[in-house]
């Protein structure tokens, strides 16, 4: 990666104080013009740090008035050379991780996990590039300040901004968490359109400026179709690199199976979530195993498996929001960590994990050209392959067909955003998961 | 540790549904009686899991109707034997960690860090025992559900409750995060009294039921004097085991020094926070080092060090709350992790860390019998020793004297809670840190 590509620092950028006033002006503008969408200035609101290979001289005896880059965020403006120091010279090359919705609650958990080394390991320095909105830019500065105060040795750069064309620059991972929540009276079709536009724009931005092999994980709902929109707008990035998060569903399914079987959750394996991250999703108990045995041999209450299990998995978020008063930000961020780790560490022998991925020659006969959650294995190189040795029965197939039909209907709703002309929306029912409204 | 001591499971306890109705009844009661304090039922609201050494038989082929313990929390009711399995038999013995204020935002970050293995290491299974209030018990169930859904292999037991005598049972670590916030018009003296009563009760509970060598970290404010009250009410636990958290202040000080010097924060070492976790605290730049050199040799702007540095450290929380709209839960929880890790891993050669500890024969001439933040080193055995080779100048001593005077005044305010008769409160000014009101 060339120096010029790695850092956006050579562009004209605004200082914190200027940004604050920009942010205020934008708010004023918004109020006066009653929420007309604003054109986004390319250079608005980016802070950046300096890449390690841009160093001119190693830091030895700092001078009285150190050279400060006015467009960096706080302490992350510092120049350094990881290869020059004993403790850090065995470290891998810095990777860029872009996160949207970075001022939200899920990110507030996730960013600190990324920075701690829990996800990419203790020898992998990272740069966090945080995407917010005009409205959240102050909060984003707060997040960056807390990251500073945490003194994470592996966190070597933090930048914040509101323009995906800046923030996604050279991203090797893009974690797309931000999405608009559904407003009162809003139909799922409206939400698909509203968020679809965001993901179309972000797809274009990734296509233009991200690493050519960027891995993209879409968390913002409706995540499968958002991921489809995103990849369709990023034709120069392999479609295989896009994922929609169904890992929280998988984790919840494992927990419910463990609970029912009376075993600890580490005994449950081979759980697939098939299809959409919605109420049509299919947690698969046919292929799942407990202590190496098929679930149906361990849990003899098949009525529970067929009639209660799926609902228990899906209602989890709703129950939680009632008890806790907030959505499940902590466990969602844990499942994002799990999803990333599953791609950067080899999958344990005989097991697999679920991810919403692009259907393109899948062995299950599922419709092509949608984003569908399926069982995957990885060598730990960031890539994955689909698992072939799964079985189906009528019950499982019938439900897979239903979630497939829903994803095809969602795709028709967003035809205008994926280059297929006019949208035609005939979604039969509301399938948002409880707690994710 | 005997089996009978380890698990509170043999006591009479309430089911989730009963607890919910209890909780509702308590709320009704509260409303009718306009916030009179309630007597706490000893057995109200505890969920528990089973200790590994209570297992009768290893889990092999689960039966159709597994034996469920009705008083456990969800999946954590499972019986298992860590020594019976290849993956876990090299693990250490399970440790009990009790956390108060467990439904709050700091805990919402911290609990997931504890459960991930980030704090105590990848071979240390843990049990989390969560203390909430009548008001927060539903939220606490939500937290426990999110912990279930996170499938942390090391997290082997979770229990929740509202009675410290239950929740602190056999605790080897007690992280006391919960405290009442200061209400409108409330003086610091009122807050000292209000929270002091909580910490007096919790000290008594620890004294009665916790491990005889429990390590106690007080985060709830005013944390130094709360820690003093707590240890005075726990005469059977070594006073040396009690800590008041000043690590966030230390981390912030390191970040500000790094920023000013234009170096990355990993270059800053030997930073002491002296005294109280309040605006009288003394971030020590005389003994601190940057890249091994005294700070004053690196940062030549001594006016900044004397006149701006401390304020910058202290205002951090206030600036953050303005930008982010919330207090610094994430970085506080990171600093709690740092504080614990500093006690369970050997301190790097030549460095030290700050902790608010009991003064009892300190080498600095600081008044005895208070909780004062000082420089500590640890062999990683949970214990610490004070650092002797520090230097003082008039500027540093004058400020240490001021924070010492404040802590002595706070102690006089809580005389009634530490067995010293009538309280006499003459606190001169409000010294709560910005953002911690």
From TrEMBL, chains A, B:
<dbReference type="InterPro" id="IPR011273">
    <property type="entry name" value="Malate_DH_NADP-dep_pln"/>
</dbReference>
<keyword id="KW-1015">Disulfide bond</keyword>
<keyword id="KW-0521">NADP</keyword>
<comment type="subunit">
    <text>Homodimer.</text>
</comment>
<dbReference type="InterPro" id="IPR036291">
    <property type="entry name" value="NAD(P)-bd_dom_sf"/>
</dbReference>
<dbReference type="Pfam" id="PF02866">
    <property type="entry name" value="Ldh_1_C"/>
</dbReference>
<dbReference type="Pfam" id="PF00056">
    <property type="entry name" value="Ldh_1_N"/>
</dbReference>
<comment type="similarity">
    <text>Belongs to the LDH/MDH superfamily. MDH type 2 family.</text>
</comment>
<keyword id="KW-0150">Chloroplast</keyword>
<dbReference type="InterPro" id="IPR022383">
    <property type="entry name" value="Lactate/malate_DH_C"/>
</dbReference>
<dbReference type="InterPro" id="IPR001252">
    <property type="entry name" value="Malate_DH_AS"/>
</dbReference>
<dbReference type="GO" id="GO:0046554">
    <property type="term" value="F:L-malate dehydrogenase (NADP+) activity"/>
</dbReference>
<dbReference type="InterPro" id="IPR010945">
    <property type="entry name" value="Malate_DH_type2"/>
</dbReference>
<keyword id="KW-0934">Plastid</keyword>
<protein>
    <recommendedName>
        <fullName>Malate dehydrogenase [NADP], chloroplastic</fullName>
        <ecNumber>1.1.1.82</ecNumber>
    </recommendedName>
</protein>
<dbReference type="InterPro" id="IPR001236">
    <property type="entry name" value="Lactate/malate_DH_N"/>
</dbReference>
<dbReference type="InterPro" id="IPR015955">
    <property type="entry name" value="Lactate_DH/Glyco_Ohase_4_C"/>
</dbReference>
<keyword id="KW-0560">Oxidoreductase</keyword>
<dbReference type="GO" id="GO:0009507">
    <property type="term" value="C:chloroplast"/>
</dbReference>
<feature type="domain" description="Lactate/malate dehydrogenase N-terminal">
    <location>
        <begin position="96"/>
        <end position="243"/>
    </location>
</feature>
<dbReference type="GO" id="GO:0006108">
    <property type="term" value="P:malate metabolic process"/>
</dbReference>
<feature type="domain" description="Lactate/malate dehydrogenase C-terminal">
    <location>
        <begin position="246"/>
        <end position="414"/>
    </location>
</feature>
<keyword id="KW-0809">Transit peptide</keyword>
């Amino acid at each position: 990666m060339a120096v010029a590509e790695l850092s956006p620092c050579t562009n004209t950028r605004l200082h914190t104080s200027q940004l604050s006033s920009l942010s205020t002006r934008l708010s004023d503008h918004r109020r006066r013009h009653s929420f007309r969408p604003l054109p986004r200035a390319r250079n608005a609101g980016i802070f950046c740090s300096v890449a390690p290979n841009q160093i001119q001289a190693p830091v030895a005896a700092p001078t009285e008035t150190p050279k400060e880059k006015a467009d960096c965020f706080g302490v992350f403006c510092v120049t350094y050379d990881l290869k020059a120091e004993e403790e850090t010279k065995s470290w891998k090359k810095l990777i860029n991780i872009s996160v949207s919705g970075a001022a939200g609650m899920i990110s507030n958990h996730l960013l600190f996990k990324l920075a701690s080394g829990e996800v990419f390991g203790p020898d992998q320095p990272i740069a966090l590039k945080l995407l917010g909105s005009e409205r959240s830019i102050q909060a984003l500065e707060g997040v960056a300040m807390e990251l500073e105060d945490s003194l994470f040795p592996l966190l070597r750069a933090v930048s914040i901004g509101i323009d995906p064309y800046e923030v996604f620059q050279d991203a090797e991972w893009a974690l797309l968490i931000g999405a608009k929540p559904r407003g009162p009276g809003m139909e799922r079709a409206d939400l698909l359109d509203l968020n679809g536009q965001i993901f179309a724009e972000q797809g274009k931005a990734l296509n233009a400026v991200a690493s050519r092999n960027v891995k993209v994980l879409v968390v913002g709902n409706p995540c499968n179709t958002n991921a489809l929109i995103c990849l369709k707008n990023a034709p120069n990035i392999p479609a295989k690199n896009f994922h929609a998060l169904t890992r929280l569903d998988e984790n919840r399914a494992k927990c419910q199976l463990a609970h029912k079987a009376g075993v600890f959750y580490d005994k449950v394996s081979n759980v697939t979530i098939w299809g959409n991250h919605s109420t049509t999703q299919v947690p698969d108990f046919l292929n799942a195993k407990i202590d190496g045995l098929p679930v149906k041999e361990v849990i003899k209450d098949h009525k529970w498996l067929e009639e209660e299990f799926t609902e228990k998995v899906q209602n989890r978020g709703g129950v939680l929001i009632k008890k806790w008063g907030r959505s499940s930000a902590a466990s969602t961020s844990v499942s994002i960590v799990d999803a990333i780790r599953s791609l950067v560490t080899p999958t344990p022998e005989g097991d697999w994990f679920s991810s919403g991925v692009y259907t393109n020659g899948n062995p299950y006969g599922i419709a092509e050209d949608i984003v569908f959650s399926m069982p995957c294995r990885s060598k730990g190189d960031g890539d994955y392959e689909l698992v072939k040795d799964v079985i189906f029965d009528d019950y499982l197939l019938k439900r897979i067909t239903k979630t497939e039909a829903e994803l095809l209907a969602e795709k028709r709703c967003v035809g205008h955003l994926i280059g297929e002309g006019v949208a035609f929306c005939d979604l039969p029912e509301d399938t948002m998961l409880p707690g994710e409204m």
